[in-house]
């Protein structure tokens, strides 16, 4: 049962922070140390100070406690404001697809009652790491705040929820509109929805749903579960409605035509095991290797094969080619106990057959990114190859939404960086206190 409810969101006070584009940020796990520093320099009240701290000014011995103090201070000073009554938050992102079409992805933010994965109300699709979960758990303990939403996909084949929410905000000027953030060309619009009748209809429609899939925010959801378990153990007589039993989510319909996944390419650096020619020769055991005369051909041929599994682009300083898996039976023999939907993922084929099988990279070293970088933009990888900063670039097609759904429902977790939903949710538009 997917129990959602409205909440009194905390937001930036527009009278104090008129340029919200200066304070909102991308999700914490995409922020590099360099970007962290840039955000700190961008604005004194940038949201990064609340989710990743401020290393430019003296802090208390406990940096997480410092964040709690800072949040309280900003509320007291009027930098932040708490909405007067529980609300849902309708969130639209207008953007252009990779093919150039204008799209509008519809979401709404709510409090979702936490449910362990074994109940199959919420399903993961990617593996998580322990260090980020421990970091986020310390922040939960110190602040009792769900700062960033978990991006969830929910089944809604008849599109009733989006229809009700569209009708509720139609003709209203957005309460928040930001045209440029960290993803150029994306327009972000937020409406505060207090209409109790609409909220109750959405709650009733969501209640029987299950198999909500985490698109982004696996660490955040698992951390919220861990915090909830701690609090229930510490307060066994507390009400089931206690706010630590909920987490902040942003819900998007699985049937939304604007649900876009971008590819995540693999750049191999500091590798000396095989030359490019040796690797292509070895790959011929599993793949049809088609040499190409121009690098521009790689992306166009890869895009033409978007609906096929096991097709990659390969670029080095001295060559480029398209690799096509010879036969899916290769993966059946290699991984006989795994579901077909998992074996047919491009990232699984690349990691299992090439990165680990042919190149000898270990799963642990890949997880630590010792020889591997993940890239959204293929041109960044091509430049790194041309400048001699890396040896090999593997270009992939994006994972399909149907594959994400089938893997999650089969209980299979994809390798890390299997999906890159575009655009990213914006952090700092609205967040939720757990008390």
Written overview of the protein:
The protein has 435 residues and is an alpha+beta fold. The protein folds into 2 domains: 4-260 and 423-433, no CATH class; 264-397, Conserved hypothetical protein from pyrococcus furiosus pfu- 392566-001, domain 2 (2-Layer Sandwich). 33% of the residues lie in helices and 22% in strands. The protein is built from 15 helices and 21 strands. The chain has helices spanning 33-42, 48-51, 63-76, 130-143, 160-169, 196-206, 218-234, 276-283, 296-304, 329-334, 340-343, 346-358, 363-367, 378-386, 401-409, and strands at residues 4-5, 10-12, 80-82, 88-96, 102-113, 122-123, 145-146, 150-154, 176-178, 187-193, 212-216, 246-253, 260-262, 265-268, 287-291, 311-315, 320-325, 372-375, 392-395, 420-422, 432-433. Strands 1, 4, 5, 6, 8, 9, 10, 11 and 12 form a 9-stranded mixed sheet that branches. It has a 6-stranded antiparallel sheet with strand order 15-17-16-19-14-18, sandwiched between helices. The chain has a two-stranded antiparallel sheet with strand order 2-3. The longest helix is centred in the middle third of the chain and has 17 residues, at 218-234.
């Amino acid at each position: 049962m997917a129990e959602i409810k409205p909440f009194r969101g905390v937001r930036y006070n527009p009278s104090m922070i008129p340029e919200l584009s200066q304070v909102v940020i991308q999700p914490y796990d995409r922020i590099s140390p360099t970007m962290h520093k840039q955000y700190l320099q961008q604005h004194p009240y940038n949201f990064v100070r609340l989710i990743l701290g401020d290393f430019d000014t003296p802090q208390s011995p406990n940096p997480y406690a410092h964040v709690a103090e800072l949040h309280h201070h900003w509320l007291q000073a009027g930098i932040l404001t708490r909405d007067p009554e529980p609300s849902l938050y309708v969130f639209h992102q207008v953007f252009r697809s990779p093919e150039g079409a204008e799209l509008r992805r519809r979401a709404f933010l709510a409090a979702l009652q936490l449910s362990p994965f074994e109940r199959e109300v919420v399903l993961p699709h990617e593996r998580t790491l322990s260090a980020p979960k421990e970091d986020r758990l310390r922040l939960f303990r110190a602040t009792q705040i769900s700062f960033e939403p978990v991006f969830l996909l929910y089944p809604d084949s008849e599109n009733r929820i989006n229809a009700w929410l569209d009708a509720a905000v139609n003709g209203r000027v957005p309460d928040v509109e930001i045209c440029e953030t960290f993803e150029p060309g994306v327009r972000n619009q937020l409406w505060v929805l207090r209409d109790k009748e609409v909220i109750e209809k959405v709650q009733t429609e969501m209640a029987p749903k299950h198999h909500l899939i985490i698109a982004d925010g696996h660490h955040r959801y698992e951390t919220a579960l861990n915090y909830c378990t701690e609090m229930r153990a510490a307060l066994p007589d507390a009400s089931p409605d206690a706010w630590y039993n909920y987490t902040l989510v942003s819900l998007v319909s699985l049937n939304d035509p604007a649900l876009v996944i971008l590819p995540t390419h693999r750049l191999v650096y500091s590798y000396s095991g095989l030359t490019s020619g040796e690797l292509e020769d070895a790959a011929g055991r599993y793949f049809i290797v088609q040499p190409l005369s121009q690098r521009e051909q790689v992306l166009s041929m890869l895009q033409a094969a978007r609906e096929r599994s096991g097709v990659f682009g390969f670029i080095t300083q001295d060559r480029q080619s398209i690799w096509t898996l010879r036969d899916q039976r290769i993966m059946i023999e290699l991984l006989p106990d795994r579901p077909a939907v998992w074996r047919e993922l491009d990232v699984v084929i690349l990691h299992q057959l090439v990165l680990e099988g042919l190149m000898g990279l270990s799963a642990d070293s890949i997880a630590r990114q010792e020889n591997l970088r993940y890239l959204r933009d293929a041109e960044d990888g091509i430049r790194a190859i041309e400048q001699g900063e890396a040896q090999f670039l593997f270009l992939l097609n994006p994972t399909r939404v149907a594959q994400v759904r089938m893997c999650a429902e089969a209980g299979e977790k994809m390798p890390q960086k299997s999906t890159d939903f575009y655009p990213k949710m914006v952090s700092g538009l609205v967040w939720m206190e757990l008390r």
